[in-house]
Amino acid sequence: MSAIDLVALAGAHRAEVDRQMTVCNACRYCEGLCAVFPAMELRKTFTAGDLDYLSNLCHNCGACYYDCQYAPPHEFAINVPVAMADLREDTYAAYAWPGAVAPLFRVNGLFIALALVLAVAVFVAGFALMADSDALFRAGIEPGAFYRVMPHNTMVVLFGGAFLFAIISIALSVRRFWRAAGPIPVTLPSLWRAMRDAGSLRYLDGGGTGCNNKGERPDNRRRLYHHLTFYGFLLCLASTTTGTIFHYLLDWPAPYPWWTPVKIFGVTGGIGLVIGPLGLMRERAVRAGVISTGNRGLGAAFLWVLILLGATGLLLTALRATPAMGLLLAVHLGVVFAFFITMPYGKFVHGLYRFAALTRHAHEQITAHGTITDPPRQPLPRTT
Amino acid sequence: MTRYDVLIAGGGNAALSAAISAARDGARVCIVEAAPRAWRGGNTRHTRNCRIAHDAGNGILTGPYPVAEYTEDLMRVTGGVTDEELAAITLERSREVWDFLAGNGVHFQPSLGGTLSLGRTNAFFMGGGRAMLNALYRTAEDLGVDVFYDTAVTALRIEDGFFVSATVTENWQSETPRPREIGARCFVAASGGFEANIEWLTDAWGPAARNFLIRGTPYNTGGVLRLLMESGIRTTGQPDQCHAVAVDGRAPKFDGGIVTRLDCVPFGIVVNAHAERFYDEGEDFWPKRYAIWGRLVAAQPEQIGHVIIDAKSIDLFMPSVFPPEKADTLEELATRIGLDPARLCETVARFNVACIPGDFDHTTHDTCRTEGLDPPKSHWARPIETGPFYAYTLRPGITFTYMGVKVNRDARMVMQDGTASPNLFAAGEIMAGNILGQGYLAGIGMTIGTVFGRIAGTEAARYVSN
To answer: If you classify domain B2-239+402-465 with CATH, what class do you get?
Structure first.
C-alpha cells in the first residue's frame, strides 16, 4: 500500500476520533475513567496533533465502551476504544522517521517475521562461514567462550550500531509526535508523574473496576501480563547493562555463573518476557469482538519477538554447556539483532508515544488545574 | 406456566435494586425488560448521579448534606406537592444508598468539570448510569436472578387487588411475538413513566406533543402503568405533567440524552418561528432556568425556538454536540434557519438598541440588561452585532412524566378504594410522582428508585416467606 493511501486512512481515522470526541465532550460522563477525557475537556475543538495525542493517551481498557449510553446500536455509534486504536496505529506510521518506512506498519507482521528469519539466517550462516568451522556446535561455559564464536568487538560494533540506529530513529519519531500537538515545556514534575502513571499502568483499570478486555466483567489480567512483560524487559536490559559493566570495569567476560546479577536479572527477566507476552496473546484472543480492531499484525508481531527474545536467551543459559551453545547463540543474537532494527517500526514504539502523551497530559493538567485528580479511593470495597 | 416468587417489570435502577434485595432475602426473582439487551436499563442509562443525605463528606462527597437540608430542597422545588410520609422515608433512607450500591459493585467518582455545584449533595457513578447498571446486572445475575430481555408485560391478571400472573411477550416488537404466562407471588412494577408514548402525550397536550423530543429511552411507553390503571390502582399526578427542557432541535427523536442540552440561551436572544422574542433569556442562571424553557418553546408556533448569538459569545458555554448554523450576516443566518431575514434583523436591531452598557460577567447576575424592551433581558444582554453570527435550534425535550401509581410506605400499590394491595409493588419513575409531585431536583429520581426498589424487593421477599 502506498504512502498516499496511508495518509488518507489516517485522515479517516482522525475524522472519526474528532467526531466521537465532539459527542464525548458534550457528555463527559466518562471523565473519571482515564486520562483521555480530562485531556479532551481542555479543548473545544481538536487539531490533528490533538487527536493523535489523545489516541496515544488511550490504554484501550474498553471501559468507556461498556459505560457509554451512545455506544452502538445508538445512532451516535460511539466506540472510543476502537476509534482510538485505529488512529493510534496510524500515528506510529505517520510520525515514523524516516518517513519512507511508513508502509512497514501496514504489513508489520510480515516485515518483522522476515527481519527475524533473515537476521537469524545471517547469524547462523555467518558463524558457519566466518568463525571457526566448528563454532556452531561448540559448548562453552568458561569466560570468553561466547567470544570465540563471535569476537566481542564485532558484537559491540554490530549490536551497538543497530541499537544506536534504533534509538535515533525512535527519538526523531517521538519528537515529531510531540511537536504535532503543540510545543510545551518538558518539566520534571510532569516527567515524574508520567513515569508513575506508565509504570503502574494507572489508566488500564477503567477508573478502578478493571480492564474490560473480555466484556462486561472487568479484571486486571492485561495489567498483570503487561507488568510481567515490561518489567521482564527492563530486567533483561539491566542484565545487559551489568554485563557491560562486568566486561569493561571488572574485566570479566561472559558467560557468567548463575549467582551474578547478570544472570539473576537475565533469567527472571527472560521468564517475564516469555510468560507476559504469552498472557497478553491470550488476552488478545479472548478480547470482546466489539472493542477489537482490524488486525494489522503490530501487536502479535511484537509479542512474538519478545517471546523469542526471552525463550532463546533462557535456552542459551540452560544449554550453554552442551554442543547446542553455538547454534543457540547464533539464533539468540539473530533475534536480538532483528529486535533492535525493527524497534522503531513496530509496536515497541507504543510505549514511548504513550509516555510522551502521559507527560503532556501531566503538564496540561498541572497547568490547568494545579494538580491531577487522583483516582478516588472507594470508601467501600467491592463485595461481589 | 413458569413460576417465580417475584416478577419484576422493568430493567433500570429501581428494578435491579428490587431484584437484588429480594434475591438476597432468598426469593426466586425474574426481571422482564421490554428493551433488547443493548438498550436495557430505561432512563438509568442516561443518569449519572443520585442525591443522598449524609452527615459528613467521605472523600468523594465534599461535605455533609443533612436530611433537614434535603427536605428543604425537596419542599422548595415541589412547592409542597409531595406525600410527606413517603418523602421522609426516601430522604432518611437515602443515607443507605451509597453503601447499598457500593456493596453491589457500583463505583463512585468525585464530580468534576461542569458539575462541581453538585459535588456535596450528589454521588456520581464512575462511568455514568450505564456503568452503574452494568454493575447491578452483574450482581443480580450472580444472585441467580433471571433476566428476560426484549420481553414486555402485555397483560396482568389481578383479582381484587391481588396479583395472580402476568402475560409476558417475548420479541413483542417483531412479527412473531411469543406470549407466555408467568405466575408469581408478587409483582413489582418498575417500568418507568410513559414519556415515550407520543399518543398518550398527545391526549394530554394536544398535537403539539408530536414535535416533542424524548430525551430518554423509547421503551418507556407506560404499558404497565396503563394495565395497572385498568386494574383499579389509584394514580397520582396529572397526565400533562412532564419535565420538559429545551434541547437542540436536531437531536434524535429518542435517547439523545445529555449531549443534546444547550447552554447558550443566556448569551443571546431566543426567537420563535416568526423571528420574535418571547421570554427573558437572562432571567437567571441557566441551571435554574433550563427546565422552564421546554414549556416556553412548546407554547410557541411549531414548538420551535432559535438561539441567536454572535462571535463575542460563541466560546462562553459548553461545547455542543451539533455545530451551530453560522453566517457572516444576520440576513444569511435567517435564510439558513428558515426565518424571515427582515423580521430577524428588526428584532435584533430593537434588542441591540435596548441594551444598556454594563460590566458583562456571565458568572454573576451582571448589569448588562435591556431597557424599554418587552420581554426584557435582565442580565447578560449585549448587542448582537459582531459577526460571524450563530444559531442553535431549540425543541422541547421531555425527560420524564410525573403521573404514576399511588403507593404506601411499603411500596405497595394503593387501590381506588384506598386499601393497599397485598402483593403489588411499585418502584422508580412509575411512582416517583408520590414524592416529586412537581418540579425537579437533580439526582432525586435515582434515589427514589434505589430506596423504593429496596423497599419493594424486601417487602416482596417478606411476603413470599410468610
So the answer is: alpha beta
CB-based burial of residue B320 (10 Å sphere; 0-12 exposed, 13-18 middle, 19+ buried)? Answer: buried
Cα B253–B16–B420 angle (5° rounding)? 100
Distance, CA of B366 to CA of B69 (rounded, Å): 29
Residue A98's contacts (CB-CB under 8 Å, 6 or more residues apart) are A169
How is B375-405 classified by DSSP, letter by letter? Answer: S---SS-----SSSEEEEEEEEEEEEE--EE
Architecture of domain B245-397: Alpha-Beta Complex (3.90)
Q: At what angle do helices A152-180 and A349-369 cross, to 10 degrees?
A: 40
pLDDT digit string, tens, across residues A49-105: 999 999 999 999 999 999 999 999 999 999 999 999 999 999 999 999 998 988 899
Give B1's Cβ-side CA count (13 Å radius): 11
Which residues of chain B are in CATH 3.90.700.10 domains?
245-397
Per-residue confidence (pLDDT) for residue B246, from 0 to 100: 93
B136 within 8 A of B17, measured Cβ to Cβ: yes
Locus of grid cell 444547550: B262
Tally of residues, chain B: 466
Closest CA to A212 of A286, A279, A295: A286
DSSP B76-118: HHHTT-S-HHHHHHHHHHGGGHHHHHHHTT--EE---GGGGGG
Contact of B200 with B194, CB cutoff 8 Å: yes
Mean pLDDT score of chain B, rounded to an integer?
95
| The residue type at B148 | F
Interface probe, candidates B95, B321, B390, B446, chain A, greatest A C-beta count within 10 A: B321
Say whether pLDDT at B301 is over 50: yes
Q: Which amino acid is at A186?
A: V
Residues of chain B with CATH 3.50.50.60: 2-239+402-465
The closest CB to that of B130, out of A25, A67, A382, belongs to: A67
Does residue B390 belong to the interface with chain A, where contact is any CB pair within 8 Å?
A: no
A326: pLDDT confidence band, cut at 50, 70 and 90?
confident
* Cβ-Cβ contacts under 8 Å for B118 (sequence gap 6 or more): B49, B51, B111, B124, B442, B443
Instruction: Evaluate the omega torsion of the peptide bond into residue A185 and state whether it is cis, within 30 degrees of 0.
Output: no
Ranges of H-type helices in A131-220 = 145-149, 152-180, 188-200
Residues of A in contact with B247 (CB under 8 A): none
Q: Does the distance separating the beta carbons of A26 and B110 come in below 8 Å?
A: no
Contacts of A45 (CB under 8 A, 6+ apart): B319
List of chain B residues whose C-beta atoms are within 8 Å of the C-beta of residue A67: 127-128, 130-131, 134
Residue B174 pLDDT greater than 80, yes or no: yes
Grid cell listed for B401: 412524566
Judge: B129–A26 Cβ closer than 8 Å, yes or no. no
Contact of A26 with chain B, judged by CB distance below 8 Å, is answered with yes
Instruction: Kindly state the percentage of chain B with pLDDT values over 90.
Output: 92
Task: Name beta bridge partners: A317.
Answer: none
Q: Which residues on chain A are in Cβ contact (under 8 Å) with B99?
A: 380
Residue A262: CA count within 13 A, CB half-sphere: 18
What value does the mean pLDDT of chain A take? 90
The residue in chain B having the minimum alpha-carbon distance to the alpha carbon of residue A64 is B127
Amino acid at B445: G
Closest CA to B99 of B410, B372, B451: B451
